[in-house]
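Exercise: predict the fold of this chain.
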Amino acid sequence: PTQLARRASDSTLSRAQVCNILSQARALGARNFSLRGGEPFLRADLVGILETADLLGMCSDVVTKVALSRTMIDRLSALRHLSLGISLDSVDPETGDALLRRPGQTKRLMRSVAQLASAGLAITIEATVTRTTFAGLDALERFCAGHNVRALHLRAAAPHKVRPVRDLVPDADMTDRIAARAGKRAGLEIVATPAFTARPSCGEGLDAVTFLPDGTVTKCTASLSRHPKMQYGNLSESSLEDVLLSRARGALLQRVAASARDLDEDQHPAAGRLPCSQLVHLRTGDPLGRRGQP
């Protein structure tokens, strides 16, 4: 369980190095700092890094599935530019603890949400909806509305080849009912995102720069991030400006653009969508094989 880990085992960049990268990025015009996991708060110095980003005027976006301490909450509440998401799929302790694989974790997360809200932090609850959690959506919505949560993001579980995961995917009727919940009620904004099917994509766009805990710079923020053909530099060896001006990055972006030639206009990278699955299938030899298909 993530709560038992003392630190992130792959965090080879020091806090000073990360903050230096943020300073370089801000000097080049970067405005947003998004953290993806895994679990970002496995870094014991993460709040200090967020404080540096805040001082630089960058908007930080982080999602966690751990119950934050009172000290952390107090420090986070002092940040001016923070978007905080809490991963909470169910407010039913039995269902939630089974998903999190840790007894008592659901109630700890719920207490943490209440403390965060009382500290004045704008929170988004990130919930992946499965057949198991679908019946509890009303209770989850009531919990969010009752604790001044800013938004509830419902994301339908995606189709998957692995049977235990595939059996949890909502059916067509459930998917329609999830979508019907979108809107604003009692001050709570509800966003519903359907599961991707044959053409997964992300919203990072061509202007995003992703660096991994070891300094590797990559185009993908998800499962392909460590594939060599998605990588184009290392910030522990080069400056951010040198990486951005490198031939490797230029060649990768050309492959991205080429892979999108036959896509609909609204899915083109210029519209903020990077069709990684198509890029990989057409240009990099399909490194995930059929695992990348539903």
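Check your answer against the key: Residues 224 and 230 are 7 Å apart (CA to CA).
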